[in-house]
Amino acid sequence: RRVMSSDSDHKSATLEADPLATQPQKAWDQRKVVQTAAKVEPVPFDKEKPPGHVRFVCVSDTHSRSDRMGAIPDGDVLLHAGDFTDLGHLQKVKDFNTWLGTLPHPYKVVIAGNHDLTFDPKLMQEIRAGNRPMFWAVRDEEAETAKSLLTNCIYLEDSETNVMGIRIWGSPWQPWFYDWAFNEERGKPILNKWNLIPEGVDILVTHGPPLGHGDVTITGQHVGCVDLLNTIQKRVKPKYHIFGHIHEGYGITTDGTTTYVNASVCTVRYQPVNPPIIFDLPTPEEA
Ligand code: 5GP
Ligand code: MN
Ligand code: MN
Ligand code: MN
Known about the structure:
binds manganese (II) ion, binds guanosine-5'-monophosphate, alpha/beta
């Protein structure tokens, strides 16, 4: 007779923090013989969308410079992986929302990044308390209203949306770097955010890269999140992972299961010259 599994066995368990969570370069040195991060060529903008597909158009790190970008290809869903402003000034958020409104994509899905300060209420409290003099310029911004200004998109923050039958999860967190918004310590604290991602999402959107994909800085170091890579490979297995943050890591790679898209529009010198990245997914069958 088959023994019924206990409740906790039904879902695959969330993960434990990686022993090398705080040393991404070392973690990659240990893994790189068994890990694949094969370069993927981008889909040309003039490639026609195959019938029965949903076209996604990915951008990230536009940093209030979207008016200086090149052409944005048409598609069904625009995805923006954060850092749409430099400091989150509400006027800049309004400008971003206005720009979104000019784009033809029927769906637009947006997360915040570490530069979108006013979207992080905990950080804004610290700024107002005088604990973050570096961000004095936004001390009087009404953070409570930031999210409500994004009327032309679906804003995700540790949450999910379903667009044309495709499940998308968005999360703004990245490993701590110079006290900006949505920073979490590597290891258990940031893994707690990744443990919120449900299994079965098709597209994962985070601001920062996982270890080993689009995560090499200008000084040649891998700085991606080790526990995000573990979460993707061992538990969530999305078809696509979209992110930015490490501008110099722009481009597409694959591990054979998940395709990783660093869609940073801005270069490391904040020039908005990298083109959007497009991909097509089959439209799921109607239930
Ligand atoms: P942003 O300030 O727009 O979030 O990131 C801009 C640049 O800062 C990135 O392209 C990268 O060069 C650098 N940067 C951001 N996060 C990290 C990090 O965690 N480690 C290192 N070494 N550099 C980072
Ligand atoms: Mn400013
Ligand atoms: Mn950025
Ligand atoms: Mn960033």
